[in-house]
Structures are given as C-alpha cells and as structure tokens.
Write a structure and sequence with these properties.
Elements lengths: L1 E3 L6 H16 L3 H4 L2 H23 L3 H27 L5 H27 L7 E3 L4
Antiparallel strand pairs: 1-2
Length: 134
C-alpha cells in the first residue's frame, strides 16, 4: 500500500494533468484556436478535472473528497462532449480525438474506482492509503 501525502501523488491527478496538457495543445492549433467559445469552455472543463481532484483531496474529509471527485468525473464527460464538437468541426483529427478520448475514459474510470474505494473505506482524512492502480 502506498501512503498518499499530496494530491500530486495520486495517479488519477497525474492523468488529469496529461489531459489538460493535451487539451491546451490541441486547442492552440490554427482552426481550433479561432473558436474562442469552444476553446474557453473545453479548457475550463479540463482544468476542472485536475482542480477538483486537488481541491477534494485538500478538504481533509472522505465525503467531501468523493463529492469533488464526482464533479471531476462530470468534467471528464464535459470535455469528451466538447471534443466531439471539435471533431465535428474538423478542429481535431480522428487519431488525436481517439487518443484524448481514451485518456478521458481511462481517467473517468480511475475516478469511479477511487470513489468506490473511498465509500467502502474506513479512512476519514487527507492521508489515504490506496493500492497501486486505484
């Protein structure tokens, strides 16, 4: 068992950070970058994923952490929906879409697994013990 001391130690937060980098990269490309409303919305939603994981962890309580994780999971869905809009507008190529969509689905599953773990756990604080893959 690994002792998680900081939100940065969470694999799911690290994955959310990768998503954020990918979204910023793809939304900076020529055609996509001109759709200011979509760029703003998809970036804010991707920021929401890693921010809510971090904020929930820092709240020091498992129930609040679960609440924030569920918001982060919802934001994964929001980014996926917006990514479909970008695909439909030919702002992203199919391969890029599939890569980011896979990352979002994986992160959503990881969040769901962490929520399930926390709901079943006796742990009640910011120092969570989790097994290898959440």
């Amino acid at each position: 068992m690994a002792n998680i001391e900081r939100f940065e130690d969470l694999e799911v937060w690290q994955k959310a950070r990768e998503i954020n980098r990918a979204i910023y990269s793809v939304s900076s490309e020529a055609k996509f970058s001109k759709d200011f409303a979509l760029v703003n919305q998809i970036r804010r939603a991707s920021i929401s994923i890693l921010s809510n994981i971090a904020e929930g962890f820092e709240r020091n309580g498992d129930k609040e952490f679960v609440q924030f994780l569920l918001v982060a999971k919802g934001s994964c869905g929001e980014v996926r929906a917006q990514l479909y809009v970008a695909l439909d507008q030919n702002y992203v190529e199919q391969g890029t879409f599939e890569k980011i969509n896979l990352m979002l689905n994986e992160t959503s599953r990881m969040i769901a697994g962490l929520v399930k773990y926390l709901k079943q756990s006796e742990l009640k604080g910011a120092r969570y013990k989790v097994t290898g893959g959440n």
